[in-house]
Design brief:
Layout: E1 5-10, H1 21-34, E2 38-42, H2 44-53, E3 58-61, H3 77-86, E4 90-94, H4 105-115, E5 120-124, H5 128-137, E6 141-143, H6 160-172, E7 176-180, H7 186-195, E8 199-202, H8 204-207, H9 209-218
Parallel strand pairs: 1-2, 1-8, 2-3, 3-4, 4-5, 5-6, 6-7, 7-8
Helix pairs in contact: 1-2, 2-3
């Protein structure tokens, strides 16, 4: 089980300056030394390197685009097999209602339960309906990761209306809830923790210096 507290997302895509399994492993080490209780990471290669540096549970994902589908977070059994081989403790996957490239969401859950019974599963959702469906399918964790990132939730932000969306998720599911997405300050981390989430994933505000720099520069555009 993931411990309660702060999970740091250590990811860098191929077009980003820090794209490197070695760099991500050191980023994870820095997060660990700062007090993180877990890591979220993208790709088998990154996870393997991270595990050489830190003894923390890892939420593993594989981002891969498929033609005809907007689902790109652990979309098929191919990605699941890679994550099983990485020995991550939790596999996260897109649990939205978007058209999938191959297997159904329920088939992927069954596949993980059969082939990696000791691995927990996290649902990345964008709506209350998706959160409830993930709960029915037996996900161990429901994360607000994709709220605001699907075509039908675009523009929504986790903290709008005093975290109303997060409050509804907490009220509607039995699975442990993970706050993720646009948690960008220590104060927001405290807010969602006080609401009762099991843990919180913070990424860009800690591990993406390019984006952090942009926030400083863009303050003059307001």
């Amino acid at each position: 089980m993931l411990p309660q507290g702060l999970i740091v997302s250590c990811q860098a895509l191929p077009d980003e300056p820090l794209h490197s399994s070695f760099i991500m492993s050191k980023m994870a080490l820095a997060a660990y030394e700062g007090g993180a209780v877990g890591i979220r990471a993208n790709s088998k290669a990154d996870i393997i390197e991270i595990k050489k540096e830190v003894d923390l549970p890892v939420i593993g994902i594989v981002k891969r685009d498929y033609e005809g589908s907007d689902v790109f977070i652990t979309a098929t059994t191919k990605e699941i097999d890679e994550l099983i081989e990485s020995n991550c403790e939790v596999i996260a996957l897109d649990a939205t209602k978007q058209t999938r490239p191959k297997e159904s969401l329920s088939e992927l859950v069954s596949y993980i339960r059969k082939n990696a019974p000791n691995v927990e599963i996290m649902a990345d959702i964008s709506t209350i309906e998706e959160a409830k469906n993930a709960d029915v399918l037996g996900f161990d964790y429901v994360g607000t990761t994709l709220h605001g990132y699907t075509s039908y939730t675009k523009g929504h932000i986790l903290y709008e209306n005093n975290y109303q969306f997060l409050k509804e998720v907490l009220n509607q599911v039995n699975a442990k809830v993970i706050a993720e997405g646009n948690v960008i300050t220590p104060e927001m981390f405290k807010d969602v923790t006080d609401l009762g989430v099991h843990c919180t994933v913070v990424g860009g505000a800690i591990t993406r210096p390019k984006e952090i720099t942009k926030r400083f520069i863009n303050v003059f555009d307001k």
